[in-house]
Design brief:
Number of helices: 10
Structural class: mainly alpha
Largest sheet: none
Distance between the termini: 77 Å
Shape: elongated
Low-confidence stretches: 1-18, 208-214
Number of strands: 0
Length: 214
């Protein structure tokens, strides 16, 4: 990436972390998207927030839609690393979902991306491709490994479990629930219990033997 110093353009804002120009621009774009929404977002505002010139932005991306799509793709590079413990790994993933929306990307921003889908589908597509899909695949892989290890029944629907785990946070947000410190633990415990119970009740029962059978 081109550094801000090499550009000779970065005008560092007081208190702003020292990042290279690309990261400054992408960080500024996400901040402003959350604050003002996509329709009111401008390249000039992104440049001012990032402490760079407008030409510095346009040399990297052709318009604000490209900047925002790149910012979304860049927003979730640090992901949980599975440790091999089913419960702990699922809790870590759900905690990452919670952290994403509480500290990195406000939930309302996803609504902005959805609202812009008819005009700028690349925005929500970037979110789905770089944030939602990798997370869903990671969770499904964790569940599949647990199935292979015999920790979960073989008929466990790994993609469905992944969707339910992620959906727990969306449901809590829309209901304005207060999440305590052990919320993730309780969600995972209930979800795993449900997966095991569903398998036990859906498994075919053995046919009763006839009176004359051996």
């Amino acid at each position: 990436m081109t550094s801000a110093g090499a550009d000779g353009e970065a005008r560092r804002r007081p208190g702003r972390p020292r990042l290279d120009a690309d990261d400054q621009i992408l960080s500024a774009a996400l901040e402003l998207l959350a604050e003002v929404g996509f329709p009111r977002l401008t390249v000039a505002a992104i440049a001012e927030r990032a402490g760079v010139s407008k030409p510095a932005v346009y040399r990297r991306w052709s318009d604000k839609a490209e900047v925002v799509a790149a910012a979304i793709a860049n927003s979730h590079r640090d992901r949980p690393h599975p440790v091999g413990d089913l419960r702990a790994d699922l809790v870590a993933e759900l905690h990452d979902v919670r952290e994403t929306y509480e500290r990195t990307v406000p939930m309302a921003m996803v609504g902005t991306l959805l609202a812009e889908e008819p005009h700028h589908p690349e925005l929500i597509e970037a979110w789905r491709r770089w944030v939602v899909q990798p997370r869903r695949e990671r969770i499904a892989e964790i569940v599949t490994r647990a199935v292979d290890a015999g920790e979960l029944p073989p008929e466990t629907d790994a993609p469905l479990v992944a969707s339910m785990l992620i959906g727990a946070l969306y449901g809590a947000y829309t209901q304005e629930l207060t999440l305590d410190d052990d919320w993730e633990q309780r969600v995972v415990a209930i979800l795993l219990e449900g997966a095991r119970h569903h398998a036990s009740v859906s498994s075919p029962r053995p046919e009763p033997r006839s009176a004359g059978g051996a």
